[in-house]
Amino acid sequence: MARAGGFLVVSAVSAVVIMVLANHAQGLGVNWGTMASHPLHPSIVVKLLKDNGIKKVKLFDADDWTVSSLAGSGIEVMVAIPNDQLNKFANSYNHAKDWVKENVTKHLRDNGGVDIRYVGVGNEPFLASYNGSFIKPTFPALKNVQKALNEAGVGDKIKATIPLNADVYESSSNTPSDGNFRNDIRDLMLQIVRFLNDNKSPFTVNIYPFLSLYENANFPQEFAFFDGSKTINDKNNTRYDNVFDANHDTLVWSLKKAGVPDLKILVGEVGWPTDGNKNANVGLAKKFYDGLLKKLAKNKGTPLRPGHMETYLFSLFDEDIKSVAPGHFERHWGIFRYDGLPKFSMDFTGQGQDKMLVAAKGVQYLEKKWCVLDSDVKNMSAVGPEVNYACSLSDCTSLGPGTSCGELGDRETASYAFNMYFQMNDQSVEACGFSGMGKIVTQNASRGNCLFPIQIESGAERLGLGSAVMVAAGALLSLLVLM
Ligand SMILES: *[C@@H]1O[C@H](CO)[C@@H](O)[C@H](O)[C@H]1NC(C)=O
Ligand SMILES: *[C@@H]1O[C@H](CO)[C@@H](O)[C@H](O)[C@H]1NC(C)=O
Ligand SMILES: *[C@@H]1O[C@H](CO)[C@@H](O)[C@H](O)[C@H]1NC(C)=O
Ligand SMILES: *[C@@H]1O[C@H](CO)[C@@H](O)[C@H](O)[C@H]1NC(C)=O
Ligand SMILES: *[C@@H]1O[C@H](CO)[C@@H](O)[C@H](O)[C@H]1NC(C)=O
Asked: Which residues cross the membrane (predicted)?
């Protein structure tokens, strides 16, 4: 009896564990962008994804090296076509066919294959700030890509979709039930969602509570998170206690009105940045993710779409050469730092446990050297132009009001800028000149919460090494054949 009892307890425990694993295994994805001066080597990234149980990844292009690195990993992949390529796909079905052959079907065979599930056609191509530049080519490109997938015999499993910003729909009253697609693109959106529906492809939407707060000083802060007291009431006694759900269900209403009420929705991007703005910090990011991950693990869904939600967190790493047009926070969306270290505790199982994600393994750092403003420099008015120069060619988005290095004095700010430029240029001695005002030091120049980083060896540079090793292996192979 005692034994049997023990066994029952054990199996109940493992059933719970299995269910928890299955839940997050089913859903959690991340965006993997590579707009970094020193990107991590793809093999290190794939190991990181596996170590953290991440099962899905969304890319922004179809870079052969990156996609190949996912072969045999069991990770589901969305490859993508950048906006500036859309015209080619719209104008030529043959181009779409060639692209699918080289960037999709080829990978399905290599090394046990890459598990490609989606092709993202463009990236937020209807963003109002693009002034309509991509309105014409996007839908024809979508059709050509899906047709090419179908003709290659993979259209049942691999779907073309358009990752869209939530600004493609709106609600005049701010309640979801008044939602509809944006006036200037409504007819186009109707055609697109019907096409997606006919092809059993998902609607991919990027939802950013952070931007609600950033763009509107009067936005109630607690509504951006998942545990706040602020609620809004919609028709039919539907209540919303967070803007993520309200935003998502504004889309659900828009789809209902378009006659495709059951179109699958995939959340292509959601996250919170940690620097570059007063609301972008580790504390608020952790609060946001704690709420989001709990909600996702419980398969709570939204009032209009309860249940599982396919979701891709934004983003995997900080990327120091992204455009800062949206704001300085744009380079700080990573759940990991530039070097693959986790920034704060995060529990993908949604149980709110205080544990760190597994860090990237095998990352090679440059030497422990920093470039700072020489303490002999007394004339600060000569320093300004050097700081501007350093910042214009590196990344100073952690400087400024409310940021991690915003409290530095003038001399330390100059040192910060000098160091960023120095690290960006792989610590070359010439990159610490600054008209004789720069000085290389070996004592950690970081100040309080302001990190003066040491760059890593770029994974992209190691490609050169990688191919040399491949050549050597190839030569060895031919020797063996000769013997
Ligand atoms: C495949 O994708 C890569 C990276 O996005 C691109 O450079 C290349 O031109 C594509 N191949 C074809 C045949 O279009
Ligand atoms: C869109 O138009 C605005 C105002 O006319 C302009 O400042 C901006 O550069 C344009 N953006 C693009 C991507 O063309
Ligand atoms: C209102 O709620 C009822 C009961 O839950 C449901 O059957 C009905 O479809 C809802 N109406 C709308 C417009 O959502
Ligand atoms: C300080 O630097 C400025 C700008 O380079 C220069 O015009 C000025 O003469 C310098 N002042 C002194 C005291 O050297
Ligand atoms: C420098 O100091 C900062 C803050 O104390 C620390 O986080 C960082 O790891 C140090 N860097 C190195 C290379 O030791």
From this structure: 463-482
